[in-house]
Amino acid sequence: MERVVNACSIHIRFKSIVKASAVKQKGFSELEDTMADSEHKLHVGIVGGGLVGALAACYFAKRGHSVSVYEYRSDIRKEKLMGQSIDLALSTRGREALRAVDLEDALVNQHGIAMRGRMLHGKNGRLKEMIYDSVKGNCIYSVNRQYLNEILLNAAEKRPEVKLHFNSKIVDADIDQGKLTILNMKNHTTEEVNIDLIIGADGAYSTIRKIFMKRPLFNCSQIYIEHGYIELFIPSGKNNEFSMSGNHLHIWPRDDFMMIALPNEDHSFTANLFAPFKTLDKLKTSESLIKFYKEQFPDLLALIGQEKLVKDYFERQPKTLISIKCKPFHMGKRAILVGDAAHAMVPFYAQGMNAGFEDILLLDNLMEKYNSNLNEVLSKFSELRCNDAEAICDLAMYNYIEMRHLVTKKSFIFRRHVDTILHKFIPNTWIPLYSTVHFSRMSFQECIANKKWQDKVLQRGLWCLGTVLTAIFVLSFTKINFE
Amino acid sequence: MERVVNACSIHIRFKSIVKASAVKQKGFSELEDTMADSEHKLHVGIVGGGLVGALAACYFAKRGHSVSVYEYRSDIRKEKLMGQSIDLALSTRGREALRAVDLEDALVNQHGIAMRGRMLHGKNGRLKEMIYDSVKGNCIYSVNRQYLNEILLNAAEKRPEVKLHFNSKIVDADIDQGKLTILNMKNHTTEEVNIDLIIGADGAYSTIRKIFMKRPLFNCSQIYIEHGYIELFIPSGKNNEFSMSGNHLHIWPRDDFMMIALPNEDHSFTANLFAPFKTLDKLKTSESLIKFYKEQFPDLLALIGQEKLVKDYFERQPKTLISIKCKPFHMGKRAILVGDAAHAMVPFYAQGMNAGFEDILLLDNLMEKYNSNLNEVLSKFSELRCNDAEAICDLAMYNYIEMRHLVTKKSFIFRRHVDTILHKFIPNTWIPLYSTVHFSRMSFQECIANKKWQDKVLQRGLWCLGTVLTAIFVLSFTKINFE
Hints:
2 copies of one chain form a homodimer. Chain A is of the alpha/beta class. Helix content of chain A is about 45%, strand content about 20%. Chain A contains 18 helices and 19 strands. Chain A has a 7-stranded mixed beta sheet. In chain A, strands 8-2-1-12-19-18 form a 6-stranded mixed beta sheet. Chain A has a 3-stranded antiparallel beta sheet with strand order 3-7-4. Chain A is globular and about 90 Å long. The model of chain A is unreliable at about 1-40 (pLDDT under 50). The interface between A and B is medium-sized, with 15 and 15 residues. Strand 13 (about 220-235) of chain A pairs antiparallel with strand 13 of chain B. Chains A, B: This is Kynurenine 3-monooxygenase.
């Protein structure tokens, strides 16, 4: 089995192979001008200036296309208004996408914090480490959403092809003719802009997806899980150092609910309580909250402090967790969805951003392969990406159960050991699920198929082992009896 | 096992039981005034004047509430503008709902056409009858959608409590405060109306559901199947008689696709071709269409005539088939979805209308039980109906496979015989799936559970039978050898 199977493993022409591999090695900068010349120049309208939208702007600009980004919020670089804040965990898919716009180093080496594994916290304060990749030492990187969005916007803005429009809300889109109707939220005027390619990178509550939903043959589902979350903060400890290991993703698994904490650059942690709404509903007073934390997370309570916990907790309302699947990702002749607009997922596999960035890598590969022929690019993008996106949405749901419940089970721990040993001896054949998702670009569907195959092999292996041991036992017994 | 388990089997107070049973026996008319007196009078705004909306208007008016119906189309009684036309098949759930507004007789005895079973047409013209209920003789009734909608609107309009507003499009709704913003499509003015209870009966592409979708914790999926349909017509035959049996639902099952035909009052049939879009895409010329019909439906081609087939077929575009599930059915403090707005389904179990009408029966029971306390009524409606609606959506998907494929399989036919025999001998214990869906008010979830239980019993029964037969064979063989 191939170790790294690209999600966008399309049959590319020899020229494209050379280019793609060159891009991988050197970054875009040396190649961009030669690439754009030969292609039809488009006006690309990107709806949403979040992480995926800003990255898409960089990629399309580098192809020489003219890019307009429409973001309904103000410029976050000036106003620091970001709402979402669960820290992000950057891994291979996201890193590859950032590498091509020369931002990988800033994120991984300068501002990312390597997390080499999970650190599980028992109720009694006992710690248990679970290394993500003890064979190759791969890590995931805790990065700050605001910082990442800022440097992506800066990178996009540097390009002469890109125009960023803030306070610009899309009120309508003609996805066949290619037209966006934009409301300027400062002076309340609307304007219509002709666009060759509309990219809906406008997040889980996407306006572009709502326009798609009016079309026949567009399938879509939005599912809220019955759990919500509340964000909390663990201040830095003595001498402004981390109060726990700064190189782990900390988890307090409690079966039905959990807390997690990711390290920040200032040596604090951003923590989140994930729990069923019915559990959160019971925590309505300071007393009930403190009692709950004393019982469930005593070590965490000591680190946060009762006063801060109460203040932070009751300042916020529990937020919801949505999972969105849709198919296809393109509609009309000129519109496409990427990132959360196409596949918002619960955050438990830390793949929302990584998968969104990988969308842009795939889209860029297809623009190259089909020489910017939108007809082919858009339908191929749906064909290659929709089922894969559905797979990572499902994996993200599964990982919540793994994180809050399975990690404490003996059968799970035993299986992890087996995986680690086999991965060590046959590293290209036996890759654990977590590694295929985070440390390869294997398509998400294949990650699931690979895990199922492993389950089957192990099941049969155990059956054979059982049979052999029984046979040995019977033979020894017979021998004893005959002797 | 109870034979008929009501989908809305809630625990009702003794008073309610007496009333409900009286309603069942005598119709609403004798009871209505006494019922309304004791209840809080509401202004009910029904969005959509289709089948379910018009029925809901009758029910709420009979409770003494003030009812406004907003329909974006013109009055179909004057303009005959109806778009949808697949004939409807009325069965127990729908009949019970119509009985309470004294319309059952008009539909069933005066204008409905009893269909006692399926008539399967082979390629060679061979016919095979499959009676729906050979034990009790239950039928389903082919009714005309336009006629049914007209008499429901007439019944609603007769009530002084009801005001019908046509050409009135809902552009916004405040589902907490209870407010509808209505655009008069004739004079292009908008008005705001205060409403105590907003009922979204506005079909598969519901505006009210779209407003729900903006709220957190509203789950929703829309799935288009990869098959479409085209409506055709079979004219009446000699002496203006039916050209085939007028008491069957005719099916031409061809595995991947099928045609069906339902009898009309004028002795014509309304027929529909259901097929994958890729099959329909191949029928682009008169020649290919006629060749296809000659190969697949030669008897039907003879009845329709080549010229009429070509004309009717190419006058139309294939239509799509959507399945919509959502949860909960209520949002905010004052809004609820019913009918297709809550659970649009593919038409293959003929339960879209029946289930929509049953929604109104349930809603009415709950208004009675909770004395019009919306807080309780709305949440209980979701609790009792959402999973059931999901079940009938799934059953409708399954029945497409049964109708176009399974009905020709020997294993299916054998199972039908077993079901019929068992139903005959233990009619209250063994009720085939089709009968539970069409001829009872068993909750749809229970219909599925009942079928699974039967599958299990039969599987075990067959296993036991096999074992006994093997034992007998072995014993006989041993005896022969010993003799």
